[in-house]
Write a structure and sequence with these properties.
Elements (H helix, E strand, L loop, with lengths): L1 H6 L7 H32 L3 E4 L6 H12 L8 E4 L1 H37 L1
Antiparallel strand pairs: 1-2
Helix pairs in contact: 2-3, 2-4
Keywords: Membrane, Transmembrane, Transmembrane helix
Protein name: Potassium channel domain-containing protein
Pfam families: Ion_trans_2
Length: 122
């Protein structure tokens, strides 16, 4: 998805528009990945690979919430997996850590490039 965000940064458009477009693409990709993991959790639970311990877990939004908390490596602990879903949860946390790291590098490099271009114009 970072490649798609780079496509949103062609020269000729105002810098703020390009940056906003690329950051929205990155945000959408992170939300999509969290949604895919939530769907994976649902399917894995239906296949009998584990379940979730939670006071209330009755909608798809609860699984998406768990996935968002997990992919950001926040881990609040109000919902926790059991059985083999614990392994999938670990994989999601590692994936989230890598996504956040790559996104931070992309944002830093993009902002640094914009700052150099602005300094040349001044």
């Amino acid at each position: 998805m970072i490649g798609l965000a780079k496509i949103a940064l062609p020269p000729g458009r105002p810098g703020a528009v390009r940056l906003s477009a690329s950051y929205l693409i990155i945000l959408a990709s992170h939300l999509l990945i969290a949604g895919l993991f939530a769907a994976g959790f649902f399917l894995a639970a239906q296949m009998g690979l584990g379940g979730f311990e939670s006071p209330v877990l009755d909608s798809w939004m609860d699984l998406f919430y768990f996935s968002l908390i997990n992919i950001t490596t926040l881990g609040l602990g109000d919902i926790y997996p059991t059985g083999h879903l614990r392994a999938i949860t670990g994989i999601e946390s590692l994936t989230g850590f890598l996504l956040i790291s790559c996104t931070a590098q992309f944002v830093y490099a993009t902002m640094n490039k914009e700052e150099r271009l602005y300094a040349k114009r001044s």
